Amino acid sequence: MGNEEIEMQDPLQALKAFTPARIGLGRMGSGIPLKAFQEFKLAHAHARDAVYSELDVDGLAINLKQFELPILYLHSAAAYREQYLQRPDLGRKLNEESAEEIKNYYSPCDVNIIICDGLSAAAVNNNTIPLLQLLVPMLNEVKLRLGPIALVKQGRVAIADELAYQLGANLSLILIGERPGLSAADSVGAYITYAPKPGLTDESRNCVSNIRPQGLNSAAAASKISYMIQEAFKNKLSGIGLKDNEGLLKS
Predict the structure, then answer these.
(1) pLDDT 10s per residue in the chain (251 long)?
(2) In this structure, is the dihedral angle defined by the CA atoms of residues 209, 48, 64 and 151, taken in order, positive or negative?
(3) What share of the chain is helix, strand, coil (3-state, %, to 5)?
(4) Global pTM?
(5) Domain ranges, ordered by start, for the chain
(6) What is the C-alpha separation between 33 and 162, in angstroms, rounded?
(7) Distance CA 169, CA 162 (A)
(8) 87: which residues sit within 8 A by CB, 6+ positions away?
(9) CB 53 within 8 A of CB 121
(10) What is the dihedral of CA 198, 135, 180, 20, to 10 degrees?
(11) What ranges make up the beta strands (E) of the chain?
(12) 203 near 239, Cβ under 8 Å?
């Protein structure tokens, strides 16, 4: 009887172990309990902080030296954060200085890795190096030529199309901070585009998302990204035409 009463009081208790989503918060009058309200406000503050966080270019550059690849320091056409948030189009292209710089740095390769702040630089600062420490050896093992690593400030996903095209890459991999939610403000997304070029849209890309310790951890993410990149080269495409069949039994 006791257990049945507890279950009736909170029928969603069992589900709470499987999701950080706000379920079964309870009620206090016409609203939610004070503790749940305070936790919501704190999560909202973390999300806002993530949106306005800054890319740690110096710290990332120091850690990227271990991969022995050239590093490019670039900036989108969005000059500052508020403009970036209000003008998504400016975040999708390089500013004049960066566009001119890469013209002089044509470097044909298989994979161009781009690290970009996106909507959560904090996520990128914390999660990209552990991911690359696992991923880069995987790509080297299958003999894929890696181009320079580009660090891009105030960028959005599509900036990888122009950048990788100008550098002569067969495939772009952009690691970017995802839009913070009220359950996670530190998530990185990895977008893969085969034959990148300006003007592509989202159906041309594959995404591995929620890369963070409490989501898709570095080991799982590196394995999935490596698999998708190899499949992209095998099939000579990416996007909606490229399916994730890893782990499926052959008929």
Answers:
(1) 445 444 455 677 777 677 777 677 777 777 777 776 676 666 656 666 667 689 999 999 999 999 999 999 999 999 999 999 999 999 999 999 999 999 888 889 999 999 999 999 999 999 999 999 999 999 999 999 999 999 999 999 999 999 999 999 999 999 999 987 666 778 999 999 999 999 999 999 999 999 999 899 999 999 999 999 999 999 999 999 998 888 664 44
(2) positive
(3) 45, 20, 35
(4) 0.85
(5) 57-235
(6) 49
(7) 10
(8) 78
(9) yes
(10) 140
(11) 71-75, 109-116, 149-153, 169-177, 188-194, 205-211
(12) yes
According to CATH, the topology of domain 57-235 is Rossmann fold (3.40.50)
Burial class (CB within 10 angstroms; exposed 0-12, middle 13-18, buried 19+) of 176: buried
Residue for token digits 């270019």?
57
Residue 118 burial by Cβ neighbours in a 10 Å radius (0-12, 13-18, 19+): buried
- Reading phi first (left if > 0) and then psi (alpha if -120 to 50, else beta), residue 68 is in left
Label residues 29-61 b or e (16+ Cβ within 10 Å = b): eeebeeebeeeeeebeebbeebbebebbbeebe
Give strand pairing partners of 216. 211
What's the length of the chain? 251
The strand pair at 109-116 and 169-177 is best described as: parallel
Token readout for 167 is 């550098």
Q: Are 9 and 2 in contact (CB under 8 A)?
A: no
C-alpha of 200 from chain center: 18
Closest of 220, 209, 151 to residue 181, by C-alpha: 209
Specify the residue for token string 């990128």.
Answer: 124
